[in-house]
Amino acid sequence: MAATTMRRTILFRCKKKIAFAHSRHADTRIKTLCDTDSLQEAVETFEHLLSAKSVSIPSLITCNHLLSSLVRQNRHKSAFSVYRLMVEADIVPNLRTFTIVINCHCQSGRMNNAFKVFEEIEAQGYVPNVITFSTLIKGFCRVGRMEDAVELFNQMVSKQQAPNLFTYNTLIDGLFKAGKTHEAFGLVTVMLQKGHEPNTVTFTTLIDRLCKEGKLQEAEKLLYRMLKEGHNPNVITFTALIDGLCKKGNLDEGMKLFCEMPSKNICPNTVTYTALIDGFCKQDKLDKARKLFYEMLSKNIHPNVVTYNALIDGLCKERQWQEAAKLLQEMLDKGYKPDVITYNALSNGLCKEGKLQEALWLVDGMAQMGNQPDEITYNTLINGFCKVGNLEKAGELLQEMTQSGCRPNLVNYNTFIDGLCKHSRIDEAQQIFYEMPKQGLSPDVITYSTLMDGLCKGGNPKEAIKLFKQMKASGYVPDIITYSILEDALCNQGSSQEANGLLHESLEKFSHDTDIFSSKQQHL
After folding, report:
1. Total-model pTM
2. What's 338's DSSP letter?
3. pLDDT digit string (tens) for 371-389?
4. Are 145 and 110 in contact (CB under 8 A)?
């Protein structure tokens, strides 16, 4: 048996050497393995040829094909290994090789390394082309290094390398994602001036941005212009618009677009369904949300954590605990890991139901599962304990935040101050108020108004007026609620002259709220 195995091994090795007696055979073999996704075998064959010092060294074209296949499959470590072996075997890289290696670094997030390879191109006597520039620009955009991306784009233009539609689309998308909306639209204008017609990617990017900015009518016009000009929208285009409509509460229009998708041969995906499910849950239309959820399951479209979170949040708001717990268990059974948003939805529901101890247990379990409570988690608990008058526990939670590495924010402080004021513990509320700057936080209009309201209801309008003047001196602009709090308090104390002065001051600022002011004047 051992002899037979040995003979087979020797025969295999002989066949392998004979098979690669000519380099074209090696090239064909490696290319075939790459094209059939047998990448591990392709790499092993490549390594064998170079380590055996075979006469059948793969050609540069084959090396590039192997590198490109590995990068396409996100096998970055293997790609770097193949490139290193190429260089050691004196296989001289060309511009395509360098561009593939740059792309590999970009996909790995190693932008400094990618730029070093880019600089090496010119040192080797090559001129970077539009593909090389675009690849590096895309890498910078992906990691949010927009200044570098724009600088490279300008360098590209100065070197007479005309950007193509891919370059423009990549940079426009990156600018939008970085919040540089003005610059992005400016680049769209430049693109059109250079004679580049927008394609599906361009339209989709613009529609997505318009939706995120709440400019839904403009987004819809752009969609219909896109269709009129013969461009085929894809699932991302429709989903961007549906999501925008749902976030604005316009679910009828969102469903109308959703129903149009099959007629355009576009299948909704998980994100599309999730946008609608979340929209219906936020409007307390759980039946419609459920229907969509089961529809996506029947079509073998798998929900993700965001989908489950939307439904769990909706169910908790409607106090349907059993179904929420069932969905949470389903998540776990399917291998989905609940995130902080899942736990926040559940703890918020429990707190609103007054089940504060259960909410605390849930948050403790959350930390054990590797999800650290965030500012929203703590605020939910602080608010819950404030509402039932357990201000000691609320204060403990505020301190616990700092100890656990979760720095309290302005909302957390505002919630606690509001709780103290509502339970007539004004001195403590003032103490917390004046401690805020020590924590690196500045009070906002809500903080001032909350404390003023507490002072007024506690029979101390003079202190509230003092705080009001301090607020204005600090550069804060009182809103209509601030004025109303003080006017009501002064009226109730019979200080109609002071109240009238405040009324006229507020009238100059908020004259559009005529109903409020007419009722105030009648009261005075």
Report:
1. 0.72
2. P
3. 889 999 999 999 999 999 9
4. no
